[in-house]
Write a structure and sequence with these properties.
The structure holds three protein chains of three kinds. By secondary structure, chain A is an all-alpha fold. In chain A, about 40% of the residues lie in helices and about 5% in strands. In chain B, strand 7 and strand 8 form a beta hairpin. The chains are: A mainly alpha, B alpha+beta, C mainly alpha.
Chain lengths: ~350, ~400, ~425
């Protein structure tokens, strides 16, 4: 349902539709507006077209529709006809096969509107590019134009077959590209965000990170010609080439730090035969958790702390003042006019 | 820094020629007539010794802004580098404690000593230290505007999940690991000493109780670590202990993040022990060799508590998953000898198993998140925003 | 990042702020001396000017000043003789040595004494004894070291250990010291490192040593080589029993340990070398073949082909020379067999120091003599925003001069007698 933010190069027919023509959506919206003010006034619509029973007799009667053909019928008819499996629509002239699972409540009173919304939702799922995916705003608007044309065709049942085909091809191309990208990025195993235990306090919130990942995977786009040679109907101009995100490195709990000693190999026990050995068996040290190995590690770390640091070489270029301070002083000097300004010290 | 009254830069007089100005006049004469230190660029610097000059240079690098809050031992101001007002800092000015008879307070000495040595992304950065005319030490610390972990779990407006907890706990574990790698015991790990930077990084702060690992046969005090986070060996009066004390505190913080309430709260030290024993069972010589030799150990009364079963943990800490529960229980092992070390904590499979910890930039934030930070940036010296700012300051004194 | 033992040291404040080349150290000391002389000159000049002014206005009471300005009374402006850098160093080193005795007297742990001495040496890198009275500073330094090394001691109890000393006097220079230390309190000592090396050598002697990164030596090979170590470098192989070897290692450890507790902390070693290099040098003095062998196990064989090894050896040799230059290790000291000779030497030294201290008394910075009053004044000034009335200044001046007289007796007995 995206309308171009800025109308660039819209076709004349289109403008006609926008400005003068009555799309079911716009008329439906008007009706919706009306119906919200006049609730429960309906009379004819309260009779089931299949069993002819009326809400007048049955207060709890509920009507359902199936987005396959948008024919309305009451809940008990749905149960009766479709409980044992798919069956043809009972409305005369409609031969579509319906499944019970797809019956649902009606959102809008106007079924044409209901249908248009469904179509737009479906198309929106396939054509899900954002402005960021395009080189220029113009390219993006042209893309929106094409999408709107498709939508229009489906709503008004113009070239339905061909449009459906284009839609499918585009979806297939997208999923193929998506597979390629996720294949190269090395995260082949789907991230399994463990759902928190429902019994624990309500912290249920998918982490932002997870959401980002999800968003990315949905915003798949095709590059021109990525879906092969057969189809040129959906090679959008100015569509940026999608670059596979760099492969995610395995998580390092140490944050990139390692402390493997360079000059020694730590042993579990050093028999030096003095107070050190004694502390090893001292009950007070044992019970309190003072570990002799901590001392070993520290003594050896100290032994080689600066083993290969040659002060003469490494500090030769330093001034008596900290080099950091020295450079920052230069900067301070540049702006030192206001030395006493808001200096509480 | 002016130590002598005659050297005070403010004593340089105007045209007034009262008798009272005699001393000052002399100071000016001195400045004008004597060939002072060649390196000195201004007359005032000439009367300072080298150490004073260096201190002065450090001090001049910073501009102090609004007062953020005051605690018993320090006042915290917002501040920034003079040459770059976008580089924010927090300036913690240590109060001179009249009651303390032994000069500069130990907390300040410890904090400065260890922060000068430790440089790690998950430990608060000490930019500089300087002293002021009235001999107060001022610590220029990293600006950490997003509150602390305790505020975070207390804030019911913030929703977070297992991957977020893992990210925070891992940053905490890195900080503790790094301290221990440098042989420093923090001895006051708790949610409100874990501050959150603008980029989402968790930073361990408040090293006022820190010390380096003691060598064998050098006893330490057991009266450290805030009670809820104090491990059983300290409650039993152990004087020879190691990094395991910090690991216990870390475990309690980890548990609190998952529970979103205090895990082991109590009113007194005695009660703290019984709260611990209720969960982990009363320690005996079998479960904790040597425990009966500790000063305040009392044999378990009848009936002695038994450790809670796995279901207890699953019911409360389901959000951590089984790996997380295992890690948590290993961090909260009664016997410090068998408790995990900080190194072992980071080697645990919990961190690398799914879910992957949330990237720090994507972590849920306290309060308004970026908005609060934006307001922070907007605020100039002099403007005081109470409320949130006060809380930030509170943590800086712990 | 790989946080190696060397990186640990590079991150330390000792390396970042307190490591220098010999030239930098000398240059800094010269600059400090020069600045101090100028300060004293300026202060003396000011006092004289003040005196003249006051004598003009007829204030006779000011005439009985002491010290520096005595000669100035009658307009005879005799030039003051200032301390040289070498003389300043002598005074500071002398005080460092008395701190060792002080530490023994108070039974302070060795790291407290060693830290206190480094504080003192660091303080006098940016300050001159002409500006700040060295004995006061040394006493406060070691008090501060007690605090930074977690050795609890109250100022009161500590002050009571000295004659006529109050806690206030001990604490007065604390801020000055902290400032001169550039707010760094951590001192990296070589003591524990020596223990670590000792542990490793013992393990190697027991046939349990592990050489790093497969430098090609097995535990058995290392043990075998150790058992034949010559007595001195280039000497013949000398077969030892494992017990003899263990006792040789322990003897070397003990000797190196004593060097670390004296020569290493009293010389400039901490400024010029790393703790690792310092203990290795001390160990080199104690037992050269043993140390050389130990070093060789840290490098791929043969070690002489490694430039790093040769460089280290050169550095250790320089450090060893520095340690040996200390009089506690000088050959004349050890060969001075007769006690009389020793005593004569000590007396000579004491006389030398005495003369220096006398000289110092004439070139002190008059502004900085009474640190207790200064300290109070600073705190008061903070409250009163630096505004001073003449009366106060005058009173303070008189107090200062009174204190100066007191200071002479203060310099009397160097150390309290042990009870």
């Amino acid at each position: 349902m995206s309308r171009p933010a800025q109308r660039v190069g819209a076709t004349p027919t289109k403008r006609l539709a926008e400005d003068g023509g009555e799309s079911p959506l716009s008329s439906g919206l008007r009706k919706l507006d009306l119906s919200s003010r006049s609730t429960n006034l309906s009379s004819a619509s309260d009779i089931c077209p299949v069993c002819k029973s009326s809400r007048y007799l049955n207060q709890n009667m509920k009507f359902l529709i199936n987005p396959e053909c948008y024919h309305k019928m009451c809940e008990s008819c749905v149960d009766r006809i479709f409980s044992r499996g798919p069956a043809p629509c009972p409305i005369a002239g409609c031969k579509r096969t319906l499944r019970k699972v797809r019956f649902r409540d009606q959102t809008f009173e106007d079924l044409a509107l209901e249908r248009e919304v469904d179509i737009r939702r479906r198309i929106g799922k396939v054509f899900n590019k954002t402005q960021d995916d395009f080189e220029t705003l113009k390219d993006y608007n042209n893309y929106l134009e094409i999408v709107e044309d498709c939508t229009w065709n489906l709503i008004n049942k113009v070239d339905v077959e061909e449009t459906e085909k284009r839609l499918q091809q585009f979806a297939a191309a997208q999923s193929q590209e998506e597979a390629e990208i996720s294949g190269t990025s090395g995260t082949s195993t789907p991230r399994n965000y463990s759902t928190p235990d429902p019994s624990s306090r309500g912290l249920l919130k998918k982490s932002l990170g997870a959401r980002h990942a999800l968003d990315k995977s949905q915003s798949g786009a095709s590059t021109p010609g990525a879906n092969g040679d057969s189809d040129t109907l959906f090679t959008f101009k100015g569509l940026k080439k999608r670059i596979a995100p760099p492969p995610e490195k395995p998580y390092d709990p140490f944050g990139g730090w390692s402390t493997t000693p360079e000059y020694y190999v730590l042993q579990d026990f050093y028999d030096v035969g003095d107070w050190l050995n004694k502390s090893r068996d001292d009950p007070a040290h044992l019970a309190g958790g003072q570990d002799i190995r901590d001392f070993y590690t520290r003594a050896l770390c100290d032994a080689f702390s600066g083993f290969g640091v040659f002060v003469e070489d490494e500090v030769a270029g330093r001034t008596p003042e900290d080099p950091v301070i020295a450079t920052e002083n230069a900067a301070v000097a540049a702006v030192s006019r206001d030395v006493n300004m808001d200096d509480v010290f | 820094m002016a130590l002598s009254p005659m050297d005070s830069p403010r004593s340089v007089p105007g045209p007034a020629k009262t008798l009272a100005a005699k001393t000052k006049a002399l100071a000016v004469q001195n400045a004008a007539s004597s060939p002072l230190s060649s390196g000195a660029s201004t007359p005032t610097e000439g009367t300072m010794d080298l150490a004073e000059q260096m201190n002065d240079q450090t001090r001049k690098q910073f501009v102090t802004g609004a007062r953020l809050g005051e605690g018993t031992y320090a006042i915290v101001y917002a501040g920034h580098y003079r040459h770059d007002p976008t580089r924010l800092v927090a300036i913690k000015k240590i109060k001179v404690n009249a009651d303390y008879k032994d000069g500069v307070a130990m907390d300040a000495i410890r904090e400065i000593k260890y922060l000068q040595e430790l440089s790690h992304p998950n430990i608060i950065k000490l930019h500089a230290v300087f002293s002021t005319k009235d001999q107060n030490l001022s610590l220029v610390l990293e600006h950490l505007p997003l509150g602390d972990l305790e505020q975070l779990w207390k804030n019911k407006d913030v929703r977070y999940g297992g991957a977020d907890i893992k990210a925070w706990a891992c940053m905490l574990a890195r900080a503790v690991w790094f301290c221990h790698k440098n042989f420093v015991l923090h001895r006051d790990i708790k949610g409100n000493n874990l501050l959150i930077a603008a980029d989402g990084n968790v930073k361990l702060a408040d090293f006022g109780l820190a010390r380096s690992f003691a060598d064998p046969f050098r006893p330490m005090t057991y009266n450290v670590i805030t009670r809820f986070y104090r491990p059983p060996e300290l409650l039993y009066g152990a004087r020879y202990y190691g990094g395991a004390v910090d690991v216990w505190s870390m475990g309690v913080v980890f548990a609190e993040l998952a529970l979103r309430e205090f895990f082991l709260p109590s009113e007194t030290d005695i009660q703290q022990l019984s709260v611990i024993c209720d969960v982990f069972g009363t320690p005996t010589e079998e479960t904790w060799p040597g425990v009966s030799k500790l000063e305040f150990y009392t044999p378990p009364s009848n009936p002695s508590s038994r450790p809670q079963p796995l279901q207890f943990w699953r019911a409360r800490f389901g959000i951590l998953g089984d790996d997380g529960i295992e890690l948590l229980r290993a961090m909260l092992t009664m016997d410090p000898k068998r408790r995990l070390t900080a190194q072992q904590v980071l080697e645990h499979r919990y961190w690398t198993n799914a879910p992957r910890p949330t990237e720090k930039e994507d972590l849920p934030k306290n309060g308004g998140g970026a908005k609060v930070m934006g307001e922070d940036l907007k605020r100039r010296g002099g403007e005081i925003e109470s409320g949130r700012a006060d809380k930030v300051a509170r943590k800086l004194f712990g | 990042m790989r946080y190696t033992e060397d990186e640990v040291y590079r991150a330390s404040s000792q390396f970042r702020l307190w490591s220098f080349t010999a030239e930098q150290l000398a240059a800094q000391r010269a600059e400090t001396n020069k600045a101090a002389v100028e300060r004293v000159k300026a202060a003396v000049h000011r006092q004289r000017a003040q005196r003249q002014k006051e004598s003009v206005t007829g204030s006779e009471s000011e005439r009985n000043g002491s010290g520096v300005d005595n000669q100035a009374v009658n307009g005879v402006q005799k030039e003051v003789e200032y301390l040289t850098v070498a003389e300043e160093q002598k005074i500071v080193n002398h005080l460092a040595e008395t701190l060792i005795k002080l530490g023994e007297h108070f039974r302070f742990p060795v790291e407290v004494v060693a830290t206190g001495i480094q504080f003192l040496k660091r303080f006098y890198l940016y300050n001159s004894p002409m500006t700040y009275e060295p004995q006061l500073i040394s006493r406060s330094s070691i008090f501060l070291a007690n605090k930074t090394e977690n050795h609890h001691l109250t100022a009161e109890k500590y002050a009571a250990g000295f004659p006529k000393t109050t806690a206030e006097q001990i604490l007065a220079p604390e801020y000055l010291i902290i400032q001169a230390l550039r707010f760094t309190f951590d001192v990296r000592h070589p003591f524990r490192g020596l223990k670590g090396g000792h542990m490793e050598m013992m393990a190697m002697a027991q046939g349990q040593g592990i050489a790093p990164e497969a430098h090609g030596r097995t535990a058995a090979e290392m043990q075998a080589e150790m058992l034949y170590l010559p007595v001195r470098v280039g000497g013949a192989q000398n077969r030892m029993t494992p017990e003899e070897l263990a006792s040789r290692i322990t003897t070397a450890y003990t000797k190196a340990s004593s060097i670390l507790k004296h020569a290493a902390i009293l010389t400039d070693a901490y400024f010029l070398y790393t703790p690792s290099q310092i203990w290795l040098s001390a160990h080199l003095i104690a037992d050269e073949p043993l140390t050389a062998f130990y070093l060789s196990t840290k490098f791929p064989s043969p070690p002489t082909s490694s430039p790093q090894y040769n460089k280290l050896l050169t550095t250790l040799t320089f450090c060893k020379k520095l340690l040996l230059s200390h009089h506690s290790l000088s050959p004349s000291n050890s060969s001075a067999s007769s006690e009389d000779e020793m005593k004569a030497k000590e007396a000579e030294q004491a006389a030398g120091i005495g003369a220096l201290i006398k000289k110092l008394r004439h070139c002190r910075d008059p502004d900085k003599i009474d640190l207790v009053k200064l300290n109070k004044a600073v705190k008061r000034d903070a409250v009163q925003d630096g505004q001073l009335e003449e009366q106060k200044a005058k009173r303070r001046k008189m107090e200062r001069e009174g204190f100066k007289k007191e200071a002479d007796s203060f310099w009397g007995p160097e150390l309290p007698k042990k009870e």
